[in-house]
Amino acid sequence: MNSINVSGVQIGKEHKPFIIAEMSGNHNQSLERALEIVEAAAKTGAHALKIQTYTADTMTLNIENPDFKINDENSLWNGQNLYQLYQQAYTPWEWHKPIFDRARELGMIPFSTPFDETAVDFLEELDVPIYKIASFENTDIPLIKKVASTGKPMIVSTGMATIEELEETVLAAREAGCKDLILLKCTSTYPATPENTNISTIPHMGDLFGVQVGLSDHTMGTGVAVASVALGATVIEKHFTLSREDGGVDSAFSMEPDEMRALVVDTERAWQAMGVVTYGPTEKEKASLKFRRSIYAAADIKDGEVFTKDNIKVIRPGYGLAPKYYEQVLGNKAKSELKAGSPLTYRDI
């Protein structure tokens, strides 16, 4: 699970989380809007801008029968025909280059999710530095092998996949030439709920397959993503739009610019806070040691006077003897005169 270099950006536990803004179909079939999304994503501090490469014909068949219709009252796309949905959501292939060029100009890493072999060949012509496999394609072994054969890093969402299915996917990717593989814990509901996300799987998945693990997050807000970083997530992917009010196929569970900016900041803070296992004062805490409690003279004490609860107290600051010695000091005599407010030391007893 060494760091993975993607266009000069390191991905790994020793580096801040790699944040992916997923445009998906939020361009609403406008190239101008797509470029505005790229610019907005760059301003949030996200590392990468991802799109999806398919056409309705590479995704499904243009057939009207129940198999090709979404029939789920809980789905955002309930009642829609698959072919028509993908016609509405796809990113025209001639838009890819201007989108990628704008992202690179703004310092972002542009890449895509291919959905068939022709998409991989097309993306190779655009020299994408990394590939993403969607959850619904994580069992498409021919596609996995095709992407892996490029030798470039792969990110695979694991929504719905069993351990056995993931093992097949990981083995296929490695055997076909992929050396740098990242799995993303994913719940394939849109939107997802925190209680259905099970991010405790992240470290288990990393140990099981010996890979970096991140999160493809369809929940609202930043809470789940921040928690996943504490569990070792190195990559966070969130759908991104200019405004949910503008509508679109994915807008309901997409982040707006201010939310993405908060995600970048909050996940980096979570990563910084992880640190290492440590006890005792840190370098920054050492200056605060003086504000601990210690034993002080609470009244003027004469040479030879007995220490009592009336003339010594455990108070702040911490320049005197530690509080653990308080009961031992009581009943002993002062070795010299002490003024009220003097810290008690071994020399005074």
Automatic annotation (TrEMBL):
Residues 294-349 form the AFP-like domain. GO terms for biological process: carbohydrate biosynthetic process. It comes from the Bacteria. Its EC number is 2.5.1.97. Keywords: Transferase. It is an enzyme of class 2 (transferase). The keyword Transferase applies. InterPro entries: AFP_Neu5c_C_sf, Aldolase_TIM, PseI-like, PseI/NeuA/B-like_N, Pseudaminic_synth_PseI, SAF, SAF_AFP_Neu5Ac, SAF_PseI/NeuA/NeuB. GO terms for molecular function: N-acylneuraminate-9-phosphate synthase activity. The keyword Metal-binding does not apply. This is Pseudaminic acid synthase. It comes from Psychrobacillus vulpis.
